[in-house]
Amino acid sequence: MYLTQSTDLALRALMLLGAGDRRRSAADLAGSLHVAPQHMAKIVQRLRGHGLVKTSRGRGGGVVLAGGVLALPVGEIVRALEGPGEAVDCDHPPCPLRGGCRLRGALRTAQEAFLAALDQVRLSELVTDPPEPVLLSLALPASAAAPPPQEGP
């Protein structure tokens, strides 16, 4: 199973927001995650639409986690972002094996197991030690972030 790039970036944005205690702009999140600001703006709007973040405009505005989001299971967040789709589409184009095929059921079972495993992890677990210092360093402006360690000669 795999996540769409949009869901992957949305989870990473939620992690960044969860590790800090300040508002972040969509452009700031985009810079930290090395994606186009327009793409991150769309992701933030999806997150807002699902009630996972709150946004505000103007001076002092930005994006923050909605209340209670850190306590959510990651599987629940992924279900919201990915929607109810199945791992395989047997209708487009129509599969000639559909009547007697067992692949669809096997893939559905695998998808449910994938999401069940993600249900065992809460978003808060993804932002606390040891990832927290790394996430917080991404939250700093590029000029304030610590330089990467230098390797010996």
UniProtKB/TrEMBL annotation:
- Name the SUPFAM superfamilies on file: Winged helix' DNA-binding domain
Domain of life here?
A: Bacteria
Name any cofactors this protein relies on: [2Fe-2S] cluster
Q: Does the keyword DNA-binding apply?
A: yes
Q: What keywords sit in the KW lines?
A: DNA-binding
Keyword presence, Protein transport = no
Report any Pfam family annotated for this entry.
Rrf2
NCBIfam families, alphabetized? rrf2_super
What is the name of the protein in this document? Rrf2 family transcriptional regulator
Q: Which species?
A: Actinomadura monticuli
